[in-house]
Design brief:
Length: 737
């Protein structure tokens, strides 16, 4: 007998009863609404969730003397939201939500709620900070401090909910609280007695700022338009996404027709069209908005007092662009929360980034960008360059980090007066003869924490490099000078990655890195090369400034008649690092000045020869310096393609690696191109400029190139590195004597 619709309905009902299924959608709350939660005082309290469409929802909070209640109806998608009236600090209370079922959140407190976000220094827990055992004992008195820890997840689209749990601070739980957030809360509670504090800890170690930023934030900053456009292309709600997907589906339909015909005819078939990469959700951990979507968006519109942010290590080489990214983050969060909340962040501490002199000023550039973030209204920075550890990227003194963040909040959010919240802040610089005078705000009781003269100040004048300054305190100002600088023009403070300056005010708060004045153009050739006065400039080239063409900024070849020596001076500045330079001179290998520049096809310069009396001077680590080195130098100048074969039998050269002994290919003369000078005795490339026709994608470097990957794996002379765009300065000059 065939089953009837009645039979099917009865069977379904019996199955539902047997398995205890509820055919109606139950009232459900986001994870952040749970036992032990803390709600923001003195502001409307949004409560939201999901239920059966059109279901009546009643929300009540059992405050005294009477409960506050709000009623709403779930929309057609089952979503609902109410706003309870503002409440003073207190608790514990019960938050009840009733619909087809009843959900209760117990032991709810009302107080101050702060969002704690960023990377590993915000995720750093009390257990790994200073004096953890002592902190565990003290925690018993802080049950009014609670943490909601968001688990690490990513998403390509804004999520409705997230995984996380509330925890009450106890001797057992405190060790897993965000240390920066907890010590901030503990200090704050001393100034707000009886006020509970909730921490929304949404942080993830090693993450960049872009994943925490919503598309709406990127849209507010013109320099980040490319990121915003990328996000829009992957957003199913956008017209461009729909158009691209429609186009792809059309191509796929055509392929299916072709596939059917090929199948019937037993004929070969081309692969199916590739799914457009721009449509793939950006859900990797470092993808723009991926952490915002999964770990911040589900918290909105949970009312917060403000945000604490500790991040930047992963964006260290962004320089001033980081300030734009911070603006996007703050704008986006405030816009979506519909709340112009305060935003307090932590300066990165000094750390031994890179190796030796490499990256020595990268922190100065980044600290400058962090300071620039304070131009955003309601954004302030806690300076910690005196409590870090240059050998540990995770300074353990999070107690003081939290206290300094709290000082900012007390002054700017809670209106506490008589509190010094900042170290000395640069105000102005004046030039007085052979001295510079620096004035500050927040300079009452200007002093040093070790009783010595102020350190980490540098000044520069015409014809000099930055030199350590003689610094002295004069009231609330600093006076700078140097015996070798008669006319100082500019200064900088705490610009080295290891800078732990001793300058403070009476409150013991340190000064942040800053610089002032106009830095004179530094000509390292004149400054560092002893024989510079004997050399005549033939060519000056700003590499890549003319695209793929070699167009010299200076070309004096027509004025050169005879010469006995040829020299090259290459300056490169990797992003966020000091200028690298190399000077290399040799006896003339030609009498034609038109053939000593870049060996383009048009120049007809082809040289693969040893050179005599090599002189090398460089500030790049590992380069062998020396004067009139014998049996050491060789050059490889040509416009051809080439192979790693050691055609000229250069001593020590490899036939498998592109190095100081390669072979000109006999094919296309207008090919890849090599301009390389080597010290074969030291088995190193002095400098290389290859594939100049590639413009900003040319190969460029001083010293041997590091072992790479892919096509650059077997190269030591920068072949296939395509790295010219990595340098902010790339200038080549050619001289003769």
């Amino acid at each position: 007998m065939m089953p009837t619709r009645k039979h099917l309905f009865l069977a379904l009902a019996l199955a539902a009863t047997a398995f205890g299924l509820n055919l109606c959608a139950e009232v459900k709350l986001p994870a952040v609404f749970a036992d032990y939660m803390v709600l923001q005082r003195d502001q409307p309290i949004p409560v939201w969730g999901w239920a059966e469409p059109a279901e009546k929802i009643t929300v009540s909070l059992s405050t005294t003397p009477a409960a506050v209640t709000a009623v709403t109806t779930a929309d057609q998608n089952g979503s609902w939201l109410v706003k309870l009236p503002p409440q003073p600090a207190g608790g514990p209370f019960t938050l009840a939500i009733a619909g087809s079922n009843r959900v209760e959140c117990k032991d709810v407190l009302i107080g101050e709620v702060w969002l704690c976000s960023g990377q590993s220094n915000m995720a750093w827990v009390v257990k790994n900070s200073l004096n953890p055992e002592e902190e565990k004992k003290l925690a018993a008195a802080n049950s009014h401090i609670r943490q909601f820890k968001v688990k690490n997840v990513t998403s390509g689209y804004p999520e409705k909910d997230l995984p996380g749990d509330w925890a009450v601070c106890t001797s057992d739980t405190v060790e897993w609280f965000t240390a920066t957030g907890y010590f901030f809360a503990r200090e704050l509670s001393r100034h707000l007695p009886g006020v509970p504090i909730g921490l929304l800890n949404s942080s993830w170690g090693g993450t960049r700022i872009e994943p925490w930023t919503p598309p709406e934030g990127f849209a507010t900053v013109p320099s980040l338009k490319n990121i915003h456009d990328t996000l829009l292309r992957a957003d199913p709600r956008q017209d461009e996404y729909k158009a691209n997907l429609t186009k792809y589906l059309g191509e796929l339909d055509q392929w299916r027709v072709q596939a059917g015909s090929a199948l019937a005819a037993e004929a070969p078939l081309a692969p199916a069209p590739t799914y457009p990469p721009s449509l793939i959700p950006l859900s990797e951990r470092q993808s723009p908005a991926a952490l915002y979507n999964a770990m911040i968006h589900p918290l909105i519109p949970y009312t917060i007092r403000g945000a604490l942010w500790y991040q930047g290590e992963a964006n260290l080489r962004d320089g001033m662009l980081y300030a734009d990214k911070k603006l996007a983050l703050v704008n986006g969060w405030r816009q979506l929360w519909q709340q112009d909340f305060p935003f307090y962040f932590v300066q990165l501490a000094p750390y031994r980034y890179g190796d030796g002199k490499q990256d020595s000023t990268v922190m100065g550039d980044f600290w400058e960008a962090q300071s620039a973030c304070e131009k955003i209204p309601g954004v302030y920075m806690a300076v910690i360059n005196d409590i870090g550890d240059v050998n540990d990227i995770h300074p353990k003194n999070k107690q003081e980090v939290g206290r300094r963040l709290c000082l900012l909040a007390l002054a700017h959010t809670y209106g506490k007066t008589g509190i010094e919240f900042s170290g000395p802040k640069f105000k102005a610089m004046t030039i007085d003869g052979n001295t510079l005078r620096i004035t500050f705000d927040h300079a009452r009781g200007l002093t040093t924490r070790d009783g010595k003269a102020p350190d980490n100040f540098e000044i520069i004048g015409e014809g000099t490099d930055f030199l350590p300054a003689v610094a002295s305190i004069d009231g609330e100002t600093i006076v700078l000078s140097h015996p070798d600088i008669g006319k100082p023009a500019a200064m900088r403070f705490a610009w080295h990655k290891l800078s732990e300056p001793n300058l403070t005010n009476a409150a013991g708060l340190p000064a942040a890195a800053f610089r002032a004045g106009e830095v004179p153009v530094i000509d390292y050739f004149q400054l560092r090369v002893p024989e510079a006065k004997d050399m005549t400039l033939v060519y000056d080239l700003n590499i890549g400034s003319h695209g793929s063409d070699i167009v010299y900024d200076v070309n004096n070849a027509a004025n050169i008649k005879t010469f006995s020596r040829v020299a090259y001076f290459l300056e490169l500045q990797p992003r966020g690092e000091p200028v690298q330079y190399v000077y290399v001179a040799m006896d003339a290998f030609t009498d034609d000045p038109t053939k000593i520049g870049v060996p383009t096809f048009e120049s007809k310069a082809v040289f693969q020869t040893k050179v005599s009396n090599l002189t090398v001077l460089s500030n790049v680590k590992g380069i062998v310096n020396g004067n009139l080195l014998q049996d050491a130098g060789c050059i490889e100048f040509w416009s051809h393609n080439y192979s790693p074969d050691n055609a000229k039998a250069i001593p020590g050269a490899s036939s498998q690696l592109y190095d100081f002994g390669d072979a000109i290919s006999q094919g296309k003369p207008d090919g890849y191109g090599s301009m390389q000078v080597h010290n074969y005795a030291a088995q190193q490339t002095i400098f290389a400029y290859n594939t100049w026709k590639s413009g900003q994608s040319a190969d460029l470097g001083i010293g041997n190139s590091p072992a790479g990957t892919g096509s650059a794996a077997n190269t030591r002379d920068w072949t296939f590195n395509k790295n010219a765009s990595n340098y902010t300065i790339k200038r080549l000059r050619v001289f003769v004597r």
